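Researcher: Checking consistency across runs. Here is Aromatic ring-opening dioxygenase LigB again:
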Amino acid sequence: MSALPTLFVSHGSPLLAVDPGRTGPLLTALGRAVPRPKEILVISPHWSTPTPRVGSLAQQRTIHDFGGFPRELYALEYPAAGAPALAGRTVQLLRDAGLPASTDDQWGLDHGAWVPLRYLYPDADVPVTQLSLQRHMGPEYQYQLGQRLAPLAREGVLIVASGSFTHNLHEVFRAPSEDRAEAPYLSEFVAWFTSHLAAMDLDALFDYRARAPHAERAHPTDEHLLPLYIALGAADNAAQQTHFDTGSTYGALRMDAFAFGDAAPSLADVSALAQ
């Protein structure tokens, strides 16, 4: 079968789960536009381990890995089935590439996974499992790990990499208002990154912290951007890409999403479904 596209989505604050803004409708439309997957492999920056681990639960559990938010958030569940066979297949692909991967029967879905999935597949009717991130490893490692996962996209698995296109929580906490104007430096960072992404300038993208304007301000730590490189590496044709601009929240969290691969839906198709 032809490969499914791979996705990078920004999940922003946990409040996205109850306040969809522009991002929720976009994700729902994106889920409708993508060929229906058999299973989902999701990567979130909120589960980081020294070596790759893949959740093997038969029934997923919803992890509320945050504090200080409204009570309603802690009552939300995403009751999808797990995908233990997919977990084993993922581990085997990574081991074949020389990575010490293993399954994990304790982790479920953290908010970086279940919050965007609530919009992509609101009925929770697609089996899903989560792959941990190695946040201490750089963009090139993530891209190469994605390349090892590429066979999954040809087997009906949708790879969803979740993070945030920019992620400066210091600035969010300094003035926590959803209506806060977007910080001017973000447009320079986004323009640089999207132009080099469209050109598939991997050397520049791997070295973005030294080359992109305001990179360390946009990402004081880069774990929320690293999943993008996994989606990029896993795509059958990463040069074929669609950028979905849904602006920012709290003035510092860009909520952009990307679809990579020959089957990536067009902006027009997704926009029509979002109406």
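Researcher: Does this match what you'd expect to see?
Model: One thing to look at in this run: The chain has a mean pLDDT of 95.
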